[in-house]
Design goal:
The chain is mostly helical. A 3-stranded antiparallel sheet has the order 1-2-3, with no helix packed on it.
Length: 169
C-alpha cells in the first residue's frame, strides 16, 4: 500500500474537500490487492483498491458525470506513477455519503470510525480499551477497529497475537 501524491497535493486535496470541491491533483491511497494473491484478478491483470483520504463530501452532491470526470483525473494522475490503469476491466466507485448510507459509518469513513480525539490511538475501539495491557484481563482485541489504528492491514491482529503469546509463555 502506498500514498500517491506530493505533500502539496495532500494539503490541497484536504483543503479542497473541506470546501466541498474536487481538487485538480489528489492524495491517493493505492493498495495493489492481487500482487499477493493473483487469483483475485483475471489472468494477466491486476486488481487495485484506490481510496482518497481527503474524501469527497460535496454539498451539491455527485452526478454520474462528475464521478466519471473525477475518476478520469484520478487515473490520469495515477498514470504518472503506474502503468495499466487506462485498461481497467471494471470499477466500483462510492462516495463518502453513499458509503455512510450503505454501511452506517460516520462520514463514510473507511477507517471503521471517524477519527475524533476520543476515537484514535489508545482510545480505539473505546476509551480504556487501547494501550499496552488489556482493559479486561485476558481479553485481547485484534481487529481493524482495535488499537493501534484503522485499516485492514493485519497489524492490530499481529500485535494482539504477540501479546497473547507473551502472556501464555
Amino acid at each position: 500500500m502506498g500514498l500517491i501524491g506530493l505533500a502539496d497535493d495532500v494539503r490541497h486535496s484536504f483543503a479542497t474537500a473541506r470546501r466541498g470541491d474536487i481538487p485538480e491533483r489528489h492524495a491517493i491511497s493505492l493498495s495493489p490487492l492481487s500482487n499477493i494473491d493473483p487469483s483475485q484478478a483475471p489472468e494477466g491483470c491486476s486488481m487495485a483498491y484506490l481510496y482518497l483520504p481527503a474524501g469527497g463530501r460535496r454539498a451539491r452532491g455527485w452526478s454520474q458525470d462528475l464521478k466519471d470526470q473525477t475518476m478520469a483525473s484520478i487515473i490520469a494522475q495515477l498514470s504518472d506513477y503506474c502503468d495499466g490503469f487506462q485498461h481497467e476491466v471494471g470499477r466500483f466507485v462510492e462516495t463518502s455519503r453513499e458509503r455512510e448510507v450503505r454501511l452506517n459509518v460516520s462520514n463514510g469513513s473507511v477507517t471503521h470510525v471517524d477519527f475524533g480525539a476520543l476515537r484514535a490511538g489508545v482510545h480505539r475501539p473505546a476509551t480504556g480499551f487501547g494501550g499496552p495491557k488489556p482493559a479486561v484481563p485476558g481479553l485481547y482485541l485484534g481487529g481493524a477497529g482495535s488499537h493501534p489504528g484503522g485499516g485492514v492491514s493485519g497489524i492490530a491482529g499481529r500485535i494482539a497475537a504477540k501479546r497473547v503469546l507473551r502472556v501464555l509463555k
